[in-house]
Design a protein that fits this description.
Length: 388
């Protein structure tokens, strides 16, 4: 059976252990699916054709495990990954679940909580390194406030910087070779999270001790919760050389944190995202940080996982179709052409400056240039709807 949308290892599709094992609990209702052991989640990912699995420390090793239990669990998990041909490209740390982190982790006011958060992160890095991960994601879900009376927000930034610098040094000292991918989110579970958008992190990274080791992990839902254009955030990260990882899912703006199947809510935005990633040649993992509807059993979870990958591959094909469509490309060419003779773009020089300042622009000509974006968008929609 040949299926042109079948996932292959080269597509680098990965899922968080926490995504396919999500049991459907929400603030108003308990779990609807039985527990899924990590090794069984790996088996399921192999069945649906995924390439990788990512994990938080405590998705695998309970927070109160003894060192011996930890070693046994990690060893068994590694064996399961090896026997199912699943890789672990990314690891992360749970710094939000335990009550100890109710005031934050790296940014908490209590120095003991901050030290514990750091220790827990170093141990999670050990687990990830043992499993072969080279990307370490840090999501500061609790690094925020309900009331700004609790601390100065710039102190939070300083504490966060200190923690990131520390974990970079640890990776260097241990020879782990990690890059760190910082994941922003505007709110949930805190009223306001400090690093609200990918742009916030892009501002913080150059101030770190090892900026070259640190990039971002933008998530579709997180930018869309803030009402922002996700592809723009990804493009800025890419342009800065900082797109180290990506969390794909979907989200209707203004709703709760939905974590829908990729492309489920906004296929047009998903199309522009996939087109961007494929056009620029993003070579990192395509990680799905989403979960199945609460109505589903584990067969439905497989439908969900297959759907994420299939939609990505369908959109990838649509992007290629868009790039190859003669009428679309003629419009793209037209909209980039100058409307009148103009001094060539050049870097600043006294000669170019003189030419530019001496040039006469006809504002009427500029304003009259044909920009058939209605037609272009309609053609895009028709590619998406399958009529082209
Ligand atoms: C969320 C986040 C998390 C993180 C994960 C990795 O909204 O809960 O997206 O799923 O991605 O904790 O650090
Ligand atoms: Mn999320
Ligand atoms: Mn995420």
């Amino acid at each position: 059976m040949s299926d042109k949308y079948a996932p292959l290892p080269e597509h680098k599709f990965s899922f968080g252990l926490w995504t396919v094992s999500n049991r459907g609990r929400d603030p108003f209702g308990s779990e609807v699916r039985p527990p899924l052991a990590p090794v069984d989640a790996v088996k399921m990912l192999a069945q649906v054709g995924a390439w990788g699995v990512n994990l938080h420390d405590n998705d695998l090793v309970p927070i109160d495990a003894t060192p011996a239990e930890r070693d046994r669990i990690v060893k068994e998990f590694k064996q399961a990954c090896d026997s199912h041909g699943i890789v672990v490209p990314m690891a992360t740390v749970t710094l939000f679940f335990d009550p100890a982190f109710r005031d934050g982790a790296f940014t908490a006011n209590d120095p003991a909580v901050r030290a514990y958060a750091l220790q827990k992160t170093l141990r999670a890095m050990d687990i990830g390194a043992e499993l072969g991960a080279k990307i370490f994601v840090l999501w500061g879900g609790r690094e925020g406030t309900e009331t700004d009376a609790c601390r100065r927000a710039d102190d939070a930034v300083k504490r966060l910087r200190h923690a990131i610098d520390y974990v970079c040094e640890y990776s260097i000292a241990k020879g782990y070779g990690y890059t760190f991918a910082m994941e922003a989110k505007p709110n949930e579970p805190r009223g306001d999270i400090y690093m609200a958008t990918t742009g916030n992190y892009l501002g913080l990274i150059p101030t770190l001790a090892h900026p070259e080791m640190v990039g971002v992990n933008p998530e579709v839902a997180h930018e869309q919760m803030a009402g922002l254009n996700f592809t723009h955030a990804v493009a800025q990260a890419w342009e800065a050389g900082k797109l180290f990882h990506i969390d794909l899912n979907d989200q209707v703006p203004g709703r709760y944190d939905q974590d829908f199947r990729f492309g489920a809510a906004n296929p047009k935005s998903a199309f522009f995202l996939v087109k961007f990633l494929e056009d620029v040649g993003y070579a990192g993992p395509r990680h799905f940080d989403a979960h199945a509807y609460r109505t589903e059993n584990y067969d439905g979870v497989k439908d969900f996982a297959r759907g994420c990958m299939r939609t990505y591959l369908i959109l990838k094909e649509k992007a290629a179709r868009w790039n190859a469509d003669a009428e679309i490309q003629a419009i793209v060419k037209e909209i980039h052409e100058p409307s009148m003779p103009t001094p060539a773009e050049a870097t600043y020089s006294p000669a170019h400056l003189a030419t530019l300042l001496g040039h006469t622009f006809d504002r009427g000509t500029l304003a009259a240039k044909n920009l058939p974006y209605e037609r272009l968008d309609q053609l895009t929609v028709e590619v998406l709807l399958g009529t082209r």
